[in-house]
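Q: Could you predict the 3D structure of ABC-2 type transport system permease protein?
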Amino acid sequence: MSVRLYMLLIKASLRSRMQYKFNFFFSTVMASFVHISEFLMVALVMMRFGNIKGWTLYEVCYLYGVMMISKAIYRTLASDVHHLEKYLVSGDLDALLTRPVPVLLALMTQNSRLLFAEVGQGIILLFIAMKALMADGQIGWSAVPLTVLIIMTGAIILFAIGLATAAAGFWLTRIESLQNMTEDASQTAARYPLSLYPKWLQGALLVLVPVGFVNYIPTLYLLRHQGGIGMLLGTIAVSFAALWLAMRFWKLGLSRYQSTGS
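A: Sure. Here are the predicted structure tokens for ABC-2 type transport system permease protein:
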């Protein structure tokens, strides 16, 4: 029932957004240029200097693509979780509390938008990377369904991180700076191999904010054949554990919520 209701609310939100077609297409084009520029800068550096600590351009391309698609899925299916602060500051969360649906479900379906640019570019990056890696014999066709699984678990982990950060707003109210660290900065860092960073930062990206499990840890198994199947199973376990903890934290915060609106 909750899934069916969620889909109905998502469709209604998307129909509302699509009434402004120019804004939709303009934002899609601009997002495409931004992401293409970001990756091209990295690609040009790697083409000039070669491998970075043993990681090839195609392996980094794979990491980048997985992170991009996982983030796009999270932001598409739970858009306004990332924007909870504005609901807390304005008091608009009170309106969601009066709806006959769970607050989180109502929040997730507000202002939904399909991130075609991010998903499309992520797929292109993965196609280029996996085609080259298959040609070199580094991976086989079994990597395709495993990549889909990795993307799904990655989206769950990113949602859990976003939800836990948003829930902190019930105590802090202003969480933009916190989100810059737990979501924006950490996700940008995890587009590249964690082995590039000092040990303390690697630990933070695997334990405190587990974005390393979105792409780096499963990629070690899939592309580099390190750690065995336990790397992949561990990633699945982390995704569900992170989701469970984030949901508990959300419920705790919501139970202590006091309106800040006028």
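Q: Anything worth pointing out?
A: The first helix runs from residue 2 to 17.
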